[in-house]
Amino acid sequence: MTHSKTTSALHLFVCLTLFNSCAREKNNISFDGTWIDLSYTYDTQTPYWPTAEGFQLDTVFEGMTAGGYYYSAYQFQSAEHGGTHIDAPVHFAQGKQTVDEIPLDKLTGDAIVIDVKDSVSDYIDYQINVSDIENWEKENGRIKDGTIVLLRTGLVNFGQTK
Ligand SMILES: [Zn+2]
pTM higher than 0.70, yes or no? Predict the structure, then answer.
């Protein structure tokens, strides 16, 4: 039983490694920048669309088993639209791409950060507008086509509340 689980884990690792190699060759993705982790904890404090059910985490098992080894497993349920997430084109356009159909090279690439945290700090309902983008371009030059634009609002400093 234990040997079988180990074999399955190794098989999965090999598949993921091969997949990554193939994906890089197929999409010709190169990288010489800095990876930035944009994730936040997904839990009961994560904001969701008001009509959606929130996050629920259940413990299946956590602790020492009768076999004498530690084991933990959980299950969770969550609405699609909560916290920081990606909305596929199909969200509002029938027949368009679902998240799994979006090519990886569309989700990685050169990025810029437009910092509006001072404006948000002054007025929490501040709406980012064209002048924020124009001001960034005045200081840094025109944004190249295909550039990923990240907006730093600083809202994380106000806590993740519903
Ligand atoms: Zn959404």
Answer: no
